[in-house]
Amino acid sequence: MIVEGKVVKLGDKIDTDVIIPAKHLKYTDPSYLAQHVLEPLDPEFHKKAAEGVIIVAGRLFGTGSSREQAAIALKAAGVKAIIAESFARIFFRNAINNGLPVLACREVTAYVHDGDEVAVDLRSGEVLVKNRGVSIKCGRLPELILNILLRGGLVEYLKSAVN
Amino acid sequence: MPQSLTEKILSRASGKKVSPGDIVEVNVDIVAFHDLTGFHVIEVMNEIKHATIFDKSKLVIAFDHMVPPPDVRSAEIQKLVREFALNHEIRHFHDVGSGILHQILLEEYVMPGQVVIGADSHTSTSGALGAFAQGMGASDVAAIVVTGKTWLSVPQPFKLLLKGNLREWVTGKDVALELLKVFKSDYFNNMSVEVFVDVGTKFPMDYRATVANMGVELNADSLIFVPDNEVINYILSERGYKLDQVSIMPDLNAEYVDEYTLELDRVDLLVAAPYSVDNVKSVREVEGTEADVVFIGSCANGRLSDLEISAKLMKGRKVKSRCIVIPASRKVFMRALELGYIQTLVSAGCVVTYGTCGPCIGGHFGVAGSDEVVVSTSNRNFLGRMGSPKSRTYLSGPSVAAATALCGKICEPGDVL
Ligand code: SF4
């Protein structure tokens, strides 16, 4: 599975309170949440994301609370994948469970710039910077995680398990 | 091969011998959610048609985030979750006024060696009792409610030894902040911190709960206190139940990725300055910063010893900052009442209310306005966490918070005596 898009670069420790502030957590409707994604950082971010972007970020993306709305909001806003130096554990699971591809990649911020066009191969963990012909090898997702992701998230995965 | 506590717990829970790096399916002993994540868990369960509850006795629900409901939507959410609890005859359901989920889990349910998963990141708190405890999102928790199982990646165990004893006014929160200062918030990725308390070191359950609570701020997969007599005594005093012995311990020669010894005598009074938990400074570096609001409470520091130390400082004095105090549970509230702490705090000018998250998540009961400075005993100071993105939060332990309320600006307990 290959995901392509234009890079929007963010910094270190983008936390869940910044991704979707607590006042929006009483709702789970993806289109509502999308309007408020990363609001404290940039109230216009959802417009940027709408064209289908790939976030490249530094350390500990998604640190903070267990709010699954953080992953839902990013995905619904148009974020096609997130590549970060490292992730907070809960956010990482939430993203996979909602079919939002996430890839940990130690050196990604050094090689990928804002506005780059990248293609991410989720199976091999390879990131290709198309406009500069650079290719980076990131960590591969374990089989189980890849399966949940490829089925579109945990609910779909569970449906087949329960019914 | 000798095993660490983490490996032992996960081996038992998965029914096979595990090693760090393995991805394993485990049986979950306790699964929990609150009002704000609960409705989301139930929504996910409804999406998985024909979903049934695997084992009702393993599910704990407590309302804490929007308690009592500050708006109509919150009331509707609680109606939905309450109906779910009643329809499914969930015995371990704690309605408005009981307290914060993580505190209730400690007081009533968790046992050493268990796997505890809650739909809230600070589920890590239960590591204080020697459990492997993690927060997860609504989908993962819904899956556990339905199947009783989840997958986990077995973390690398890390050994932390606490030695010596803390100086006066220095508490568990300062230890948590010291760890954030030394290791920063992403050193422990994919690790489980096993905390050994040296013989002769006094590190009571309240402090353990604070450190385990902040384990998630260290991004540790879990932070587990190796169970000892303190745990046995705590369970006896809270539940009247005598554990003969702690049945699960790390092996003597277990392998750890690394070790660290923290000399408690050397831990200073600390704060985390805006806007990250690992932006740790000594109180002396930021003293004099005017504090509009002081919040003493939350699942990090709303326990009896926090109220005790606050009352000790506030006795016969008056606060200069607006001060909000929230005991973490009804039990804590009742004891603080009996011991006179509540009277002292109210006399000093604090607003005191029953167990709720309140200002910690910028929900209600004291949301911060623009340019306001909050000194809080809670666990997160992210941009906008406690209200306006233009407010600033300093995290501290209870003694620094109480002293600050009295000084009207950040100060040390010694400055008010
Ligand atoms: S007190 Fe704060 S950190 Fe603890 S559960 Fe409530 S909102 Fe979360």
Q: Secondary-structure blueprint of this entry?
A:
The complex is a heterodimer of chains A (163) and B (417).
Chain A: E1 2-9, H1 16-19, H2 30-35, H3 45-49, E2 53-57, H4 69-77, E3 79-84, H5 89-97, E4 102-104, H6 108-111, E5 117-121, E6 126-129, E7 134-137, H7 143-150, H8 154-162
Parallel strand pairs in A: 1-2, 2-3, 3-4
Antiparallel strand pairs in A: 1-5, 5-6, 6-7
Chain B: H1 5-14, E1 23-27, E2 30-34, H2 35-47, E3 59-62, H3 72-87, E4 93-94, H4 101-109, E5 115-118, E6 132-135, H5 138-147, E7 149-153, E8 156-163, H6 172-183, E9 191-197, H7 205-213, E10 222-225, H8 229-239, E11 259-263, E12 270-272, E13 280-282, H9 283-286, E14 293-296, H10 298-301, H11 304-314, E15 322-325, H12 330-338, H13 341-347, E16 351-352, E17 373-376, E18 392-396, H14 398-407
Parallel strand pairs in B: 2-3, 2-5, 3-4, 5-6, 8-9, 8-11, 9-10, 14-15, 14-17, 15-16, 17-18
Antiparallel strand pairs in B: 1-7, 12-13, 12-18
Bound molecules: iron/sulfur cluster.
Iron/sulfur cluster binds at residues 64-65, 100, 120, 122, 298-299, 357, 360-361, 378-379 of chain B.
